[in-house]
Hints:
The protein is mainly β. The chain contains one helix and 14 strands; from the N terminus they run βββββββββββββαβ.
Amino acid sequence: MNIRLIKKFLYFGKYRMKCAIGKRGITSKKIEGDQKTPKGTFRFRSIFYRKDRIYKIKTILKKYVIKNKMGWCDDVRSKHYNKNIMFPFDGSAEKLWLKENIYDLIVVINYNLKPVVRNKGSAIFLHVARRNYKPTRGCIAVTKKDLILLVSKINNKTKLIIY
């Protein structure tokens, strides 16, 4: 079963979930820093989660526990661009261990990963939404409850179709 993103809702079987998308909408020409969600069909790669905030996670996808020195490189000049890194780090990178809860649970969307194309966009995740579904910098975000439900039902063959 596939997940479809239409406007600001995810549709998955009988489920309809409100979601946040990139502040500047959806694009088929994603570039680093444009604050747009990439259009297309993607699979899911893996899950990162905060073990101190999510105690039991049911999923078939490969799981990684987020440590306080983990990050994701968004530096187009780095050989680690669009990859998980550890701090300290010489280039620019997003921290995965945050005080707010948006990265308590992250599903890595298989966007610009194999091969990685510099400046095509990095750190495109499905993650926990901010209050009032505040727009993201290019990711897709749903409530923590909806995200926990989704990860229990998806696998690496599930497609995310973004219109």
